[in-house]
Amino acid sequence: MASLPSLAWPEGGTPVKRKGNIRQSVSRWCYQKIPLDKLCAYSAEIGLKAIDLLGIDEWDVPARHGLVCAMGYAGGWRHSARHEPRRESRQD
């Protein structure tokens, strides 16, 4: 079994160079005790592309770090009556 990386946050490390052919992400619920902004910053630093399982109110945090929310909680998209109000709220 390969050794696990240290749980400590690195101090000003150099971003890891990746080939770019694998786009990895991390699920928020696994790291819910870490502030989201800090999780996004470190995820971007190590070459991840997305943070998954975020609520609508959290979707802008990964964007500040060049990440996306690849899969999130939309809060009711399965109910067609809620579609139009959600679309309007996401218009910038």
Written account of the structure:
This protein has 92 residues and is of the alpha/beta class. It has helices at 36-45, 60-63, 83-90; strands at 25-27, 50-52, 54-55, 72-73. The strands form two sheets. The protein has a two-stranded parallel ribbon with strand order 1-2. It has a two-stranded parallel ribbon with strand order 3-4. The relative contact order is 0.15.
Condensed summary:
The protein has 92 residues and is α/β, with parallel strands linked by helices. Helix content is 24%, strand content 11%. The protein is built from 3 helices and 4 strands; from the N terminus they run E-H-E-E-H-E-H.
Sequence-ordered SSE layout with sheet pairings:
Blueprint: E1 25-27, H1 36-45, E2 50-52, E3 54-55, H2 60-63, E4 72-73, H3 83-90
Parallel strand pairs: 1-2, 3-4
Offer a few descriptive terms:
92 residues; two-stranded parallel ribbon; 24% helix
Overall, the morphology is: globular
Tally of strands: 4
Distance between the termini: 47 Å
Percent range of helical residues: 10-25%
Strand fraction band?
Answer: 5-15%
Helix- and strand-based class?
Answer: alpha/beta
Number of continuous helical runs: 3
Radius of gyration: 16 Å
Low-confidence stretches: none
**H/E element string?**
EHEEHEH
Q: Give, in spatial order, the strands making up the sheet with the most strands.
A: 1-2
Mean pLDDT: 77
Largest sheet: 2 strands, parallel
